[in-house]
Design a protein that fits this description.
This protein is α/β, with parallel strands linked by helices. It folds into 2 domains: 4-126, NAD(P)-binding Rossmann-like Domain (Rossmann fold, 3-Layer(aba) Sandwich), CATH 3.40.50.720; 127-263 and 289-348, Dihydrodipicolinate Reductase, domain 2 (2-Layer Sandwich), CATH 3.30.360.10. 36% of the residues lie in helices and 28% in strands. The chain has 12 helices and 18 strands. The protein has helices at 13-24, 39-43, 58-64, 76-88, 103-116, 125-128, 130-139, 169-189, 284-287, 290-303, 315-333, 336-342, and strands spanning 4-9, 29-35, 53-55, 69-72, 92-96, 120-123, 147-155, 191-203, 206-215, 220-226, 233-240, 245-249, 253-257, 261-263, 267-269, 273-276, 345-348, 354-355. The strands form 3 sheets. Strands 7, 8, 9, 10, 11, 12, 13, 16, 17 and 18 form a 10-stranded mixed β-sheet that branches. A 6-stranded parallel β-sheet has the order 3-2-1-4-5-6, sandwiched between helices. Helix 4 runs parallel beside helix 5 (103-116) and helix 8 crosses helix 11. The chain is globular, with a radius of gyration of 21 Å. Bound molecules: nicotinamide-adenine-dinucleotide.
Protein backbone atom coordinates (compact mmCIF):
# COMPACT_ATOMS: atom_id res chain seq x y z
CA UNK A 1 0.00 0.00 0.00
CA UNK A 2 1.61 3.25 -1.07
CA UNK A 3 -1.07 5.91 -0.65
CA UNK A 4 -2.93 5.44 2.63
CA UNK A 5 -6.60 6.46 2.62
CA UNK A 6 -7.48 8.07 5.94
CA UNK A 7 -10.83 8.91 7.52
CA UNK A 8 -10.73 11.64 10.13
CA UNK A 9 -13.11 11.39 13.09
CA UNK A 10 -13.65 14.36 15.42
CA UNK A 11 -12.61 17.69 13.89
CA UNK A 12 -12.28 19.52 17.24
CA UNK A 13 -9.43 21.49 18.77
CA UNK A 14 -6.79 18.74 18.93
CA UNK A 15 -7.44 17.59 15.37
CA UNK A 16 -7.44 21.10 13.90
CA UNK A 17 -4.47 22.38 15.88
CA UNK A 18 -2.15 19.38 15.82
CA UNK A 19 -3.12 16.18 14.01
CA UNK A 20 -4.62 17.63 10.81
CA UNK A 21 -1.72 20.05 10.09
CA UNK A 22 0.66 17.12 10.63
CA UNK A 23 -1.32 14.83 8.31
CA UNK A 24 -1.36 17.53 5.64
CA UNK A 25 2.47 17.60 5.68
CA UNK A 26 2.79 13.87 5.08
CA UNK A 27 3.43 12.42 1.64
CA UNK A 28 1.15 9.62 0.42
CA UNK A 29 -1.51 10.23 3.06
CA UNK A 30 -4.90 11.04 1.50
CA UNK A 31 -7.73 12.28 3.69
CA UNK A 32 -10.80 10.87 1.92
CA UNK A 33 -13.58 11.43 4.47
CA UNK A 34 -14.32 13.37 7.65
CA UNK A 35 -16.84 12.44 10.32
CA UNK A 36 -17.94 14.57 13.25
CA UNK A 37 -21.17 14.12 15.20
CA UNK A 38 -21.53 17.86 14.70
CA UNK A 39 -21.88 18.16 10.90
CA UNK A 40 -21.00 21.88 10.91
CA UNK A 41 -17.68 20.93 12.56
CA UNK A 42 -17.05 18.26 9.93
CA UNK A 43 -17.67 20.90 7.23
CA UNK A 44 -14.77 22.96 8.60
CA UNK A 45 -12.45 20.53 6.79
CA UNK A 46 -13.30 22.45 3.61
CA UNK A 47 -11.17 25.35 4.94
CA UNK A 48 -8.21 22.97 4.53
CA UNK A 49 -9.18 20.51 1.75
CA UNK A 50 -11.91 21.20 -0.77
CA UNK A 51 -12.55 17.76 -2.20
CA UNK A 52 -13.47 15.57 0.74
CA UNK A 53 -16.70 13.86 1.82
CA UNK A 54 -18.21 14.77 5.19
CA UNK A 55 -20.71 12.99 7.40
CA UNK A 56 -22.03 12.88 10.97
CA UNK A 57 -22.53 9.12 10.79
CA UNK A 58 -19.49 6.90 11.35
CA UNK A 59 -21.21 3.76 9.98
CA UNK A 60 -21.95 5.66 6.79
CA UNK A 61 -18.27 6.66 6.51
CA UNK A 62 -17.15 3.04 6.96
CA UNK A 63 -19.69 1.87 4.35
CA UNK A 64 -18.81 4.40 1.68
CA UNK A 65 -15.20 5.59 1.98
CA UNK A 66 -13.03 2.44 1.44
CA UNK A 67 -10.69 3.48 4.25
CA UNK A 68 -7.30 2.00 5.14
CA UNK A 69 -7.32 3.70 8.54
CA UNK A 70 -9.08 6.15 10.77
CA UNK A 71 -7.46 8.90 12.84
CA UNK A 72 -9.67 10.03 15.74
CA UNK A 73 -9.65 12.85 18.27
CA UNK A 74 -12.92 12.56 20.19
CA UNK A 75 -13.91 11.81 23.78
CA UNK A 76 -12.64 8.39 24.99
CA UNK A 77 -16.04 6.66 24.77
CA UNK A 78 -16.08 7.45 21.03
CA UNK A 79 -12.47 6.23 20.65
CA UNK A 80 -13.49 2.95 22.29
CA UNK A 81 -16.79 2.37 20.48
CA UNK A 82 -15.78 3.57 17.02
CA UNK A 83 -12.44 1.70 17.17
CA UNK A 84 -14.35 -1.53 17.75
CA UNK A 85 -16.50 -0.83 14.69
CA UNK A 86 -13.54 0.13 12.50
CA UNK A 87 -11.41 -2.85 13.56
CA UNK A 88 -14.30 -5.23 12.86
CA UNK A 89 -14.09 -3.98 9.23
CA UNK A 90 -10.30 -4.52 9.07
CA UNK A 91 -9.59 -0.75 9.26
CA UNK A 92 -6.40 0.28 11.13
CA UNK A 93 -7.01 2.66 14.02
CA UNK A 94 -5.13 5.62 15.50
CA UNK A 95 -6.87 7.41 18.40
CA UNK A 96 -5.85 10.34 20.54
CA UNK A 97 -5.20 9.47 24.15
CA UNK A 98 -6.97 8.12 26.10
CA UNK A 99 -8.27 5.20 24.02
CA UNK A 100 -10.86 4.27 26.68
CA UNK A 101 -11.68 4.72 30.39
CA UNK A 102 -10.21 1.70 32.16
CA UNK A 103 -8.10 -1.45 31.99
CA UNK A 104 -10.97 -3.83 31.22
CA UNK A 105 -11.99 -1.73 28.23
CA UNK A 106 -8.36 -1.59 27.05
CA UNK A 107 -8.06 -5.38 27.27
CA UNK A 108 -11.25 -5.67 25.21
CA UNK A 109 -9.82 -3.33 22.55
CA UNK A 110 -6.57 -5.31 22.42
CA UNK A 111 -8.44 -8.58 21.99
CA UNK A 112 -10.51 -7.06 19.16
CA UNK A 113 -7.37 -5.74 17.43
CA UNK A 114 -5.76 -9.19 17.58
CA UNK A 115 -8.81 -10.81 16.08
CA UNK A 116 -8.99 -8.23 13.31
CA UNK A 117 -5.19 -8.28 12.80
CA UNK A 118 -5.01 -4.50 12.45
CA UNK A 119 -2.42 -1.95 13.56
CA UNK A 120 -3.51 0.23 16.46
CA UNK A 121 -2.04 3.45 17.76
CA UNK A 122 -2.61 5.97 20.54
CA UNK A 123 -1.47 9.60 20.40
CA UNK A 124 1.31 9.40 22.99
CA UNK A 125 3.12 12.32 21.39
CA UNK A 126 5.54 12.91 24.32
CA UNK A 127 7.09 9.55 23.54
CA UNK A 128 7.86 10.64 19.95
CA UNK A 129 9.01 14.19 20.73
CA UNK A 130 12.39 14.95 19.19
CA UNK A 131 14.25 15.44 22.50
CA UNK A 132 12.76 12.17 23.77
CA UNK A 133 14.33 10.39 20.80
CA UNK A 134 17.66 11.95 21.78
CA UNK A 135 17.22 10.63 25.32
CA UNK A 136 16.44 7.20 23.96
CA UNK A 137 19.65 7.25 21.91
CA UNK A 138 21.74 8.45 24.87
CA UNK A 139 20.38 5.86 27.30
CA UNK A 140 21.05 3.07 24.82
CA UNK A 141 24.79 3.76 24.58
CA UNK A 142 27.36 1.62 26.36
CA UNK A 143 29.02 4.74 27.80
CA UNK A 144 25.79 5.72 29.58
CA UNK A 145 25.48 2.33 31.30
CA UNK A 146 22.22 0.99 32.75
CA UNK A 147 19.23 3.16 33.57
CA UNK A 148 18.98 3.06 37.36
CA UNK A 149 16.39 5.72 38.18
CA UNK A 150 13.97 7.98 36.34
CA UNK A 151 12.53 11.03 38.02
CA UNK A 152 9.53 12.65 36.37
CA UNK A 153 7.78 15.88 37.31
CA UNK A 154 4.63 16.68 35.40
CA UNK A 155 3.00 19.83 36.74
CA UNK A 156 -0.50 20.72 35.62
CA UNK A 157 -3.35 23.00 36.67
CA UNK A 158 -6.30 21.05 35.21
CA UNK A 159 -8.65 19.24 35.14
CA UNK A 160 -10.12 20.18 38.51
CA UNK A 161 -13.48 18.54 37.75
CA UNK A 162 -14.40 15.22 36.13
CA UNK A 163 -14.22 15.00 32.33
CA UNK A 164 -16.14 13.01 29.70
CA UNK A 165 -19.06 12.02 31.99
CA UNK A 166 -16.76 10.26 34.49
CA UNK A 167 -17.48 10.73 38.20
CA UNK A 168 -13.81 10.90 39.29
CA UNK A 169 -11.54 13.92 38.88
CA UNK A 170 -8.57 11.68 39.73
CA UNK A 171 -9.25 9.21 36.91
CA UNK A 172 -9.94 12.12 34.53
CA UNK A 173 -6.60 13.71 35.42
CA UNK A 174 -4.71 10.42 35.06
CA UNK A 175 -6.29 9.72 31.66
CA UNK A 176 -6.02 13.27 30.35
CA UNK A 177 -2.56 14.26 31.63
CA UNK A 178 -0.52 11.80 33.68
CA UNK A 179 -1.00 9.04 31.06
CA UNK A 180 1.89 10.59 29.09
CA UNK A 181 4.29 10.66 32.02
CA UNK A 182 3.37 7.25 33.41
CA UNK A 183 3.91 5.83 29.92
CA UNK A 184 7.38 7.44 29.80
CA UNK A 185 8.25 5.96 33.20
CA UNK A 186 7.11 2.51 32.03
CA UNK A 187 8.97 2.91 28.74
CA UNK A 188 12.32 4.02 30.17
CA UNK A 189 11.99 1.69 33.21
CA UNK A 190 11.99 -1.32 30.86
CA UNK A 191 11.26 -4.98 31.66
CA UNK A 192 8.40 -6.00 33.91
CA UNK A 193 6.64 -3.65 36.24
CA UNK A 194 7.07 -5.18 39.71
CA UNK A 195 5.58 -2.80 42.21
CA UNK A 196 3.47 0.33 42.33
CA UNK A 197 3.17 2.70 45.30
CA UNK A 198 1.03 5.79 45.16
CA UNK A 199 -0.37 8.58 47.27
CA UNK A 200 -2.99 11.15 46.34
CA UNK A 201 -3.42 14.39 48.29
CA UNK A 202 -6.34 16.75 47.75
CA UNK A 203 -6.45 20.49 48.34
CA UNK A 204 -9.79 22.09 47.42
CA UNK A 205 -10.39 20.86 43.85
CA UNK A 206 -6.70 20.18 43.12
CA UNK A 207 -4.74 16.94 43.33
CA UNK A 208 -1.16 15.99 44.08
CA UNK A 209 -0.16 12.50 42.96
CA UNK A 210 3.12 10.82 43.99
CA UNK A 211 4.05 7.53 42.43
CA UNK A 212 6.93 5.07 42.86
CA UNK A 213 7.46 2.20 40.42
CA UNK A 214 9.98 -0.66 40.42
CA UNK A 215 10.93 -2.69 37.34
CA UNK A 216 12.52 -6.10 36.81
CA UNK A 217 15.51 -4.32 35.23
CA UNK A 218 16.27 -2.90 38.70
CA UNK A 219 15.25 0.59 37.53
CA UNK A 220 12.97 2.70 39.71
CA UNK A 221 10.67 5.56 38.75
CA UNK A 222 9.60 8.43 40.94
CA UNK A 223 6.83 10.63 39.59
CA UNK A 224 5.29 13.78 40.99
CA UNK A 225 2.24 15.10 39.23
CA UNK A 226 -1.13 16.69 39.82
CA UNK A 227 -3.23 19.76 39.25
CA UNK A 228 -1.99 21.76 42.24
CA UNK A 229 0.50 23.72 40.10
CA UNK A 230 0.24 27.17 38.52
CA UNK A 231 0.72 25.95 34.93
CA UNK A 232 1.92 23.04 32.80
CA UNK A 233 5.60 22.12 33.10
CA UNK A 234 7.43 18.89 32.53
CA UNK A 235 10.91 17.73 33.47
CA UNK A 236 12.68 14.43 33.63
CA UNK A 237 16.02 13.10 34.95
CA UNK A 238 17.57 9.73 34.19
CA UNK A 239 20.40 8.45 36.41
CA UNK A 240 22.76 5.77 35.10
CA UNK A 241 24.89 3.05 36.65
CA UNK A 242 27.95 5.01 35.45
CA UNK A 243 27.14 8.11 37.52
CA UNK A 244 25.79 10.03 34.58
CA UNK A 245 22.58 12.01 34.73
CA UNK A 246 20.67 13.30 31.74
CA UNK A 247 18.04 15.93 32.27
CA UNK A 248 15.19 17.08 30.00
CA UNK A 249 13.30 20.29 30.64
CA UNK A 250 9.92 21.07 29.08
CA UNK A 251 10.44 18.77 26.07
CA UNK A 252 13.11 21.21 24.96
CA UNK A 253 16.53 21.35 26.70
CA UNK A 254 18.67 18.29 27.35
CA UNK A 255 21.59 18.61 29.78
CA UNK A 256 24.11 15.83 30.17
CA UNK A 257 25.93 15.66 33.53
CA UNK A 258 28.98 13.39 33.63
CA UNK A 259 31.73 12.79 36.20
CA UNK A 260 34.06 14.52 33.73
CA UNK A 261 33.10 16.46 30.65
CA UNK A 262 35.54 17.81 28.10
CA UNK A 263 35.55 20.03 25.03
CA UNK A 264 38.61 21.03 23.05
CA UNK A 265 38.51 24.48 24.66
CA UNK A 266 37.84 23.47 28.27
CA UNK A 267 39.86 20.26 28.37
CA UNK A 268 38.57 17.50 30.62
CA UNK A 269 37.15 18.90 33.81
CA UNK A 270 34.52 18.33 36.45
CA UNK A 271 31.27 20.27 36.59
CA UNK A 272 31.20 21.20 32.90
CA UNK A 273 28.15 19.76 31.20
CA UNK A 274 26.90 19.12 27.68
CA UNK A 275 23.68 20.65 26.39
CA UNK A 276 21.39 19.95 23.42
CA UNK A 277 18.41 21.89 22.08
CA UNK A 278 16.23 21.43 19.01
CA UNK A 279 17.14 23.92 16.27
CA UNK A 280 15.21 27.19 16.37
CA UNK A 281 13.63 26.40 12.99
CA UNK A 282 12.57 22.85 13.89
CA UNK A 283 8.90 22.42 13.13
CA UNK A 284 6.69 22.47 16.24
CA UNK A 285 5.00 19.23 15.15
CA UNK A 286 8.33 17.42 14.97
CA UNK A 287 9.50 18.73 18.32
CA UNK A 288 6.24 17.96 20.12
CA UNK A 289 6.07 14.44 18.69
CA UNK A 290 2.94 14.71 16.50
CA UNK A 291 4.89 14.15 13.30
CA UNK A 292 6.90 11.25 14.73
CA UNK A 293 3.88 9.46 16.19
CA UNK A 294 1.90 9.55 12.93
CA UNK A 295 4.88 8.83 10.70
CA UNK A 296 5.75 5.70 12.72
CA UNK A 297 2.09 4.63 12.81
CA UNK A 298 1.74 4.82 9.01
CA UNK A 299 5.07 2.98 8.61
CA UNK A 300 3.63 0.21 10.79
CA UNK A 301 0.45 0.15 8.67
CA UNK A 302 2.49 -0.08 5.45
CA UNK A 303 4.79 -2.81 6.80
CA UNK A 304 2.19 -4.54 8.98
CA UNK A 305 4.69 -4.24 11.81
CA UNK A 306 4.16 -3.39 15.46
CA UNK A 307 3.83 0.20 16.63
CA UNK A 308 5.53 1.58 19.76
CA UNK A 309 2.34 3.21 21.04
CA UNK A 310 -0.18 0.47 20.22
CA UNK A 311 -3.21 -0.28 22.43
CA UNK A 312 -1.17 -3.16 23.85
CA UNK A 313 1.79 -0.95 24.79
CA UNK A 314 -0.50 0.93 27.16
CA UNK A 315 -1.34 -2.10 29.31
CA UNK A 316 1.23 -1.35 32.07
CA UNK A 317 0.23 2.33 32.05
CA UNK A 318 -3.42 1.40 32.57
CA UNK A 319 -2.39 -1.07 35.33
CA UNK A 320 -0.72 1.85 37.09
CA UNK A 321 -3.77 4.10 36.62
CA UNK A 322 -6.04 1.39 38.07
CA UNK A 323 -3.72 0.89 41.06
CA UNK A 324 -3.59 4.62 41.80
CA UNK A 325 -7.41 4.86 41.72
CA UNK A 326 -7.86 1.69 43.76
CA UNK A 327 -5.31 2.68 46.44
CA UNK A 328 -6.92 6.11 46.67
CA UNK A 329 -10.44 4.76 47.11
CA UNK A 330 -9.21 2.32 49.79
CA UNK A 331 -7.55 5.20 51.60
CA UNK A 332 -10.73 7.28 51.43
CA UNK A 333 -12.66 4.38 53.01
CA UNK A 334 -10.02 3.63 55.68
CA UNK A 335 -10.51 5.01 59.23
CA UNK A 336 -8.56 8.20 60.01
CA UNK A 337 -6.12 6.43 62.37
CA UNK A 338 -5.00 4.03 59.62
CA UNK A 339 -4.59 6.92 57.23
CA UNK A 340 -2.05 8.58 59.53
CA UNK A 341 0.10 5.47 60.02
CA UNK A 342 -0.31 3.72 56.69
CA UNK A 343 2.15 5.72 54.59
CA UNK A 344 2.04 4.92 50.92
CA UNK A 345 -0.40 2.38 49.55
CA UNK A 346 1.79 -0.34 48.02
CA UNK A 347 0.78 -3.04 45.62
CA UNK A 348 2.51 -5.62 43.52
CA UNK A 349 2.04 -5.21 39.80
CA UNK A 350 -0.08 -7.95 38.25
CA UNK A 351 2.02 -10.75 36.74
CA UNK A 352 2.93 -10.50 33.08
CA UNK A 353 2.89 -6.73 32.80
CA UNK A 354 5.97 -5.90 30.83
CA UNK A 355 7.25 -3.36 28.41
CA UNK A 356 10.41 -3.26 26.38
CA UNK A 357 12.65 -0.27 26.93
CA UNK A 358 12.70 2.25 24.10
N1 LIG B 1 -1.93 14.26 22.82
C1 LIG B 1 -2.24 15.33 23.51
O1 LIG B 1 -1.37 15.90 24.14
C2 LIG B 1 -3.66 15.86 23.48
C3 LIG B 1 -3.90 17.22 23.64
C4 LIG B 1 -5.22 17.67 23.62
C5 LIG B 1 -6.27 16.77 23.46
N2 LIG B 1 -6.00 15.43 23.33
C6 LIG B 1 -7.11 14.46 23.22
O2 LIG B 1 -7.83 14.68 22.01
C7 LIG B 1 -9.19 14.30 22.16
C8 LIG B 1 -10.09 15.42 21.66
O3 LIG B 1 -9.87 16.59 22.41
P1 LIG B 1 -10.33 18.02 21.87
O4 LIG B 1 -9.78 19.00 22.81
O5 LIG B 1 -10.04 18.15 20.42
O6 LIG B 1 -11.93 17.94 22.08
P2 LIG B 1 -13.02 18.73 21.22
O7 LIG B 1 -14.27 18.64 22.04
O8 LIG B 1 -12.52 20.08 20.81
O9 LIG B 1 -13.19 17.84 19.89
C9 LIG B 1 -13.80 16.60 19.88
C10 LIG B 1 -14.61 16.48 18.59
O10 LIG B 1 -15.13 15.16 18.52
C11 LIG B 1 -16.47 15.24 18.05
N3 LIG B 1 -17.19 14.02 18.49
C12 LIG B 1 -17.58 13.67 19.73
N4 LIG B 1 -18.16 12.46 19.73
C13 LIG B 1 -18.13 12.02 18.44
C14 LIG B 1 -18.58 10.85 17.80
N5 LIG B 1 -19.18 9.85 18.49
N6 LIG B 1 -18.39 10.73 16.47
C15 LIG B 1 -17.79 11.72 15.76
N7 LIG B 1 -17.35 12.87 16.32
C16 LIG B 1 -17.51 13.01 17.66
C17 LIG B 1 -17.03 16.52 18.66
O11 LIG B 1 -18.17 17.01 17.98
C18 LIG B 1 -15.81 17.44 18.53
O12 LIG B 1 -15.81 18.12 17.29
C19 LIG B 1 -9.36 13.97 23.66
O13 LIG B 1 -9.35 12.58 23.82
C20 LIG B 1 -8.15 14.59 24.31
O14 LIG B 1 -7.72 13.88 25.46
C21 LIG B 1 -4.73 14.98 23.32
Amino acid sequence: MNVIKVGIVGLGAQMQENLLPTLLQMPDIRIVAVCDSDLARAAQIHHFISDVAITDDFDDMLDTAALDCVVMACPPQAHRDLSLKAMARGVHVFVEKPPCFNLVELQHLIEASRQANVVTGVGMNFKFAKPMRQLRDITRTEQFGKVVHIQLNHYASKPTAPLWGLDSTLRSFLLAQAIHTIDLGVTFGGGKLQSIESRVQRHDDSLLVSLELEFSTGATVSLLSGTLFPYFEFDMKIVSSKSMMVELNNLWNITMHEPEHGTSATGTAKRWRGAWQPGPLDSGYERSGYFGELERFFDAVRNRSSYDASFESLLPTFEVIEQICQADSQRELAPARTLRTDGFAKSKAPAGVSFNAL
